[in-house]
Amino acid sequence: MLEERPTSMTLTALGWPILLLPRSLSWPQLPHPLCPPGKEDGRSCKKVTIRMTIRKNECRSNTPVNLVSCDGRCPSASIYNYNINTYARFCKCCREVGLQRRAVQLFCATNASWVPYTVQEPTDCACQWS
């Protein structure tokens, strides 16, 4: 009598369903696991503002500039899959969803002039497959 293999199991630490796949399906063709949003702990992927001085060659912003960046936690796991005899890696990164251009004036001390400089800022941030 053949032993029945489960079609899925739950990785309790993360609460993700893990699918057991046929041998013919191997990484990187594995489907992405279902990643339900985690409990809000204040560290999820979101837009944050960072103050920094922008420098380009001999020029720099006169004062620190508030720039939008992305920061936070996203789901990831490395789970052993005996069908492919290795670990399957599921990783998402906190990344920009869209970008917008923003003009910043930089002061060049060598010739006492101002030059325009363009930076790109995220319009939004989200966990995305890397």
UniProtKB/TrEMBL annotation:
Keywords: Disulfide bond, Secreted, Signal
Cystine bridges: 59-108
Top-level taxonomic group: Eukaryota
Matching Pfam families: DAN
Residue ranges annotated for the CTCK domain, each copy included: 45-130
Residues spanning the signal sequence: 1-26
Record's protein name: CTCK domain-containing protein
Organism: Saguinus oedipus (Cotton-top tamarin)
